[in-house]
Write a structure and sequence with these properties.
The chain has 400 residues and is mainly alpha-helical. It contains 16 helices and five strands.
Length: 400
């Protein structure tokens, strides 16, 4: 539970070095070369016996449907008279990053206007006009980068979860370690939110999103330098936020219902942490320890349940395509093999929420945890995102 900052070990270092060397000279994916599309048999072969123990995933048939179903979390309402329930998703921040030769002649980016469940304009070009389809396809690839790389990997894994996990567990005194260990319910909660396997996930993230010799590096149209710049710049932006600022920012980027769900679930996370840790709260070294622990809980349940678990099928099936080709995405064998590998590689889990509750010491603690679970289910419905639910949902910590 409490970490020493040390080398990841020979086994992990050798594994990463081997993987990097395998991809070192791999060319960028080129849809003009590989014309064979993924089949059901291909998916079955690549997924194999990997466990994907999720009851709830978004299952759609196209990148456009994926964006529209997720719109409540990523499209802000447009205020002002005369607007007909319009919202906007502005991904223009991506257009400053260079793309590499051989994958695209277009930059990522785009500003989509959504009205009555459809995109009606992108960056000033209206649906039906000559250049709309090209801009739409670039925008959908940009949305994939926004969801998988920026919001999931950089924000969720690094700027949120890893930041607060290390803040809570590294360099703590023996007296603080003893305090947590001697109180069963707080100890179980801390262990569930800071599993040791997350140490190795730090290094797996390098393989997933690092520049060049990485899965996302090979799959996107970014140059190596641009991918590194995205990682560094967005990490600095997000890690500078405190928990309240982060939740406020995430909520503000979507609909009013989604914003309310973010705030309500955040309050519920703080309530359950404060209740379970009530007997040690006055003895903690860090004045923000319980707030940080609540952030780990909120990140590992409400945030990641949506941005990671719920999107898993979209990654595997190619509904979050990375290449900015300007053409309609095709899930070729080359691209499908990579996206399926990225998707299934994240399918690591600890225990579900009901199982975790059995380890808490008192009936009151178990009841508080159940109430938190019920709050998550209520907040999921508040978002207005079709089929998003925490009813019987797997609780995830190890995937970070």
């Amino acid at each position: 539970m409490f970490y020493d900052v040390k080398s990841p070990g020979l086994r992990i270092n050798l594994g990463i070095m081997l993987f990097y060397n395998i991809l070192k000279y791999a060319p960028p994916l080129n849809l003009d070369i590989d014309k064979e599309n993924m089949s059901a048999a291909d998916y079955a072969e690549y997924i194999g016996d990997k466990a994907i123990p999720l009851d709830t995933m978004m299952e759609v048939s196209s990148p456009l449907e994926c964006f529209l179903e997720n719109a409540p979390a990523f499209c802000k309402p447009i205020e002002g008279e005369g607007e007909k329930h319009q919202s906007v998703c502005d991904l223009g921040y991506l257009d400053k990053y260079q793309v590499k030769a051989g994958t695209s002649s277009y930059r990522y980016g785009g500003k989509a206007i959504v009205e009555e469940g459809d995109i009606v304009a992108i960056s000033g070009v209206k649906k039906g006009e000559a250049d709309f389809d090209r801009k739409l396809n670039i925008f959908l690839a940009s949305f994939a980068v926004h969801v998988v790389l920026v919001r999931h990997a950089i924000m969720g894994h690094l700027a949120m979860y890893q930041k607060y996990m290390m803040k809570l567990t590294v360099g703590r005194s023996d007296a603080q370690k003893k305090l947590w260990n001697e109180h069963k319910s707080p100890n179980e909660l801390m262990k569930a939110l800071t599993p040791r396997a997350t140490n190795s996930v730090n290094f797996k993230i390098q393989v997933l999103i690092g520049p060049g010799n990485s899965l996302v590096g090979r799959a996107t149209s970014f140059t190596n330098e641009s991918l590194m710049a995205v990682n560094v710049e967005k990490y600095k932006e997000y890690s500078a936020m405190d928990p309240n600022q982060m939740v406020g920012y995430i909520g503000s980027q979507g609909s009013a219902r989604r914003n309310s769900a973010c705030q309500k679930s955040w309050e519920a996370a703080q309530d359950v942490v404060n209740f379970i840790c009530r007997d040690i709260s006055s003895q903690l070294e860090g004045t923000d320890d319980l707030l940080d622990l609540a952030m780990l809980l909120w990140t590992g349940t409400f945030f990641h349940g949506f941005i990671g678990d719920f999107q898993l099928d979209n990654v595997i099936r190619g509904n979050l395509p990375f290449l900015a080709t300007g053409e309609t995405h095709r899930q070729t064998v080359a691209y499908g093999t990579l996206s399926t590998t990225i998707g299934t590689s994240t399918a690591q889990r600890t225990m579900d929420m009901r199982t975790l509750s059995k380890f808490f010491e008192t009936k009151e603690d178990r009841k508080a945890w159940q109430q938190y679970h019920e709050s998550l289910a209520e907040c999921a419905k508040m978002t207005g995102i079709n089929k998003f639910s925490y009813d019987g949902h797997v609780y995830n910590a190890i995937d970070f």
